[in-house]
Amino acid sequence: MDTRIKSLGELKKSNYKSKTIKDELRDNLIKFLKENKNPFEGIIGFDDTVIPDLQTAILSRHDILLLGLRGQAKTKIARLMTNLLDEYIPTIEDSELNDDPFNPLSVIAKEIIKRDGDNTRINWIHRSERYTEKLATPDVSVADLIGDVDPIKAAALKLPYSDERVIHFGLIPRSHRGIFVINELPDLQARIQVALFNILQESDIQIRGFKIRLPLDIQFIFTANPEDYTNRGSIVTPLKDRIDSQILTHYPKSIEVSKMITKQEAKLSEEQIERINPDEILLDLIEQIAFEARSSEYIDAKSGVSARLTISAYENLMSTAERRRIVNNENETHLRISDLYGVIPSITGKIELVYEGEQEGPAKVAQILIGKAIRNSFTQYFPTPDSLKPKAHQPGTEKKPYQPNPYQPIIDWFKKGNKADLMMNLSDKDYKKLIQSIPCLDDVVKKFQPKLNGNSRLLLMEFLLFGLSEYSLLSRTKIEDGIQFRDMLSSMFTMPDEEEFEDEDDESQYKF
pTM here? Predict the structure, then answer.
């Protein structure tokens, strides 16, 4: 539309036709679909589930409830709805409700048109200005959302309280011809939810004693967490009945999808990107931690585990390596398995623990999740130690030749009293020297991952140490500013000044 048009007369000559916002969203979505374009760019993992349901709701001109656990992109989806709005729409200048020049709503807009006719001044508002978002909290009032009498306005204009012009409109009327989002709807008090009934169904608003009918043109989007229905509040039944479409969101269903989300949302500095070399093993492990958390017996499944956990964990992982690079005055560095313990602070604040988890403590639970992620990822690179144990020969079957345990030389080296102290701030040179000093690590990696070379092979050698400790073939112990690997038997005779990772009493042991 030509935004150079500045008067109602010019707008009439341009053959401009008004649309309701729901028709506007519908028409623009149809254009996107015909052109095979995606208006929800950046929403990953919902292509076959949430997005088709959302598109169906828009085509049906429905108000929408996005229902899902924390960190499932509900608010992001709502904000991207503005992509389906026309770039600009005309409004009457000085009107307070984004009044359509052809269908004025407020008393002020009607008076302006009556006074100026075709000379009525026109403003153009961009689609980005047609989005309003309100977080539902217990202190939200009807006046905030709908409106109330403004005594200051009455005094300034010298009007009686019976005049509609003394009304100060709330957020919803001011969102006329726009998208209005209420986040965490169940947290809204029941009496406030009741105030939304007529707006959703009959377009009526009730302010004090005024008898007002405002056919508001609004696309409503609500978000809610299923847990809220029972723990903190609920959506009153008549309100749920008036919301046309309820769409269920979900967490990423695969590591690959989860990695794409994390890479897209993580905020890294240019220096981190240029000087720290990540590896797919570490990126997979970060996502595996979240998958472990979502099925953990220590964590409340109803609360969910936000995608923000992996985003923050990835940022912390890179910063842990960056800190080490700066301390060692190195130009660049590579991520290590031991860097995973630097992500514990990004886990502890993002998980809701059940009773058993509270007993363990958030830091211990975070360490358990990291251990499980390492253990369950081990089979992607090496055979599990359990699968290598000799099995009893079944009569009538061919006896299989003995297969030596490839990990035994490593275990035997530690049994001789050797140990490896992996300090958190080791330079890359000393790290490489330490890992390569452990016999047979390189042989096992070459055998099962022959295509890996350089730093990837070195990382997998370190991963092998962590994996064997998770299968209780090696002992992994916290020492000052580092980790010590040694024989399991010798760990039973731990010196008094040393602490096992499994110690439940001192959470500070996890801070390196």
Answer: 0.84
